[in-house]
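Give me structure tokens for this 115-residue protein.
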Amino acid sequence: MTTIKSLTDLIIKSSNEDKDSYRKTEVKDENRTIYRMFYPSSRYLVDTAPDFKGWEQFDTHQDAPYFGVWNNKELKQSLCYAEGDWILVQCVTDESYQQEVNECIEFYNQPENKY
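Here you go.
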């Protein structure tokens, strides 16, 4: 069974190795780094992972087997799956993590008090 930790490690490794494509590591700002990987599967890889504790699903109107978003405040990470594309945002500070969550709230048009 896949763990979220092994998945996020694989995303980081894949993104660091893919230097010449849109999936290469990207610095979003000085406190947030984006890692990308293509790995066809489903969102249930995360939902059923044995180490799901600490992760929260970020509800969107797009949630489906082919799409999902999760956040982990303790790890300061945001994870998104969309039709085989995995995107991991690693934040350095609590403030940058909160900024990432706020951007999710704005992008997906969700009520702030829920997160």
